[in-house]
Amino acid sequence: MRPRGVAGAGLFALLAANAVAVAYFFSQAGFASNALIVLGRLCGLYGALFMAFQLLLVARLPWFDRRIGMDRLTAWHRVTGFGLLWTLVGHGVFITFGYAQSSSLDPVNQLIDLAETTEGVLRAIVAMALILVVGGASARWARRRLAYETWHFIHLYTYVAVVLAFTHQVAAGTTFTSSPTATAYWYGLWGCALGAVLVGRVVLPLQRNLRHRLRVSAVVPESENVVSVYVTGRDLERLPARAGQFFLWRFLTKDRWWQANPYSLSAAPDGTGLRLTVKASGAGSASLRHLEPGTRVFAEGPYGAFTTLHRTRPNALLIAGGVGVTPIRALLEDLHGHAVLIYRVSASQDAVLYDELRHLAAAKGALLHLISGPPNPDPLSPGELSALVPDLAERDVYVCGPPGMTNAVLRGLRTLGVPKPQIHFERFSLAR
């Protein structure tokens, strides 16, 4: 089984094993006489499990990230979020209506009574409200309208919700206290989930940045709206970065220190320096042109599974669109075997790093096709791709570019019968 399959199977086997454990401890705790209360407690337990699993998915642990990729982990995190939301809603609704059946109160007054008389319930209500806010901010329509920094700040409230939910479980959870084994299990589950976040999101980034002391060494304009930033530091040969990966870059100037943006490496790491090449698509990326050499850099990463780790064939096809050529250029440098590179741009003057690509392709014996012009007819249609690369189905295919182009190429590859394990892509926008 390939690395991605091993890691994915391991994650879901872990989730399934814990789902069985939760059911076992729930049954051992005994059942209430009211069916709605029983159902509500079960929903609450699985909501706690979903919450812990969500923390693991966004912990950015290197072993999982290199094999699965942040984009897929983020997508799974979003799907799991729906499970978390509905189980917690079910928990609150079923518990409230269940206790209301056993009293003379209506559901609203019953909820108020529980909040006033039962330890931990008010904390659970606040946790639920926070999760609803975070869930609303993660909806696609809201995500498109929020700045990354705003979205990220709202998501920090998830950790507050986690703490409140855990203290509610300790105070009011009958399953939590039903036996010493159950108590140890839940403490272990939450400890592992929070520990993974602490290690992946805090300890490792701090450790690596203290070790490597990254600084901007040069800023080189590549065109009117594209710039390359060269970064150097100490002991970079110990930085586990690979061609095709990206970092979350934070340039520590007075007006940028609070912004972290995902940019791919545009050259294979050589142990002496790193390079990112960025198109000015917003105020943040446009300001990179004005960085001064010597500026301190805080980088989180490396992240991503868009690397040669997942090769299945000796030869490769690389398809790049626009500034999506940056990780493709790094991959070309790192690849062994015969490679074909198709570089799609609107106009030839938009071909970033093209001179580098020509020299690199010549040195490696690779074929380079620069395709420019209007989108219709589609120069990357299945027919055009098979004409350019007749042995397409026998190659690993790496695709990086704008979402529309990437989606169209992926559909074309499926039409041409390229096996799924040979198709490699990463939607880098999800890292944001």
Give a structural overview:
This protein has 432 residues and is α/β, with parallel strands linked by helices. The chain is 52% helix and 15% strand. The protein is built from 15 helices and 11 strands. The strands form 3 sheets. It has a 5-stranded parallel beta sheet with strand order 9-8-7-10-11, with helices on both faces. A 3-stranded antiparallel beta sheet has the order 1-2-5, with no helix packed on it. The chain has a 3-stranded antiparallel beta sheet with strand order 4-3-6. It is elongated, with a radius of gyration of 25 Å. The model has no long low-confidence stretch (mean pLDDT 90).
Put the structure in a nutshell.
This protein has 432 residues and is an alpha/beta fold.
Topology:
Layout: H1 3-28, H2 35-57, H3 62-68, H4 70-101, H5 107-117, H6 121-138, H7 140-143, H8 148-155, H9 157-172, H10 180-212, E1 215-221, E2 226-232, E3 246-251, E4 261-264, E5 274-279, H11 283-286, E6 297-303, E7 316-321, H12 325-334, E8 339-345, H13 354-364, E9 367-372, H14 382-388, E10 396-400, H15 403-415, E11 423-425
Parallel strand pairs: 7-8, 7-10, 8-9, 10-11
Antiparallel strand pairs: 1-2, 2-5, 3-4, 3-6
Brief descriptors of the model:
single chain, 432 residues, 11 strands, alpha/beta, 15 helices, 15% strand, three-stranded antiparallel beta sheet, five-stranded parallel beta sheet
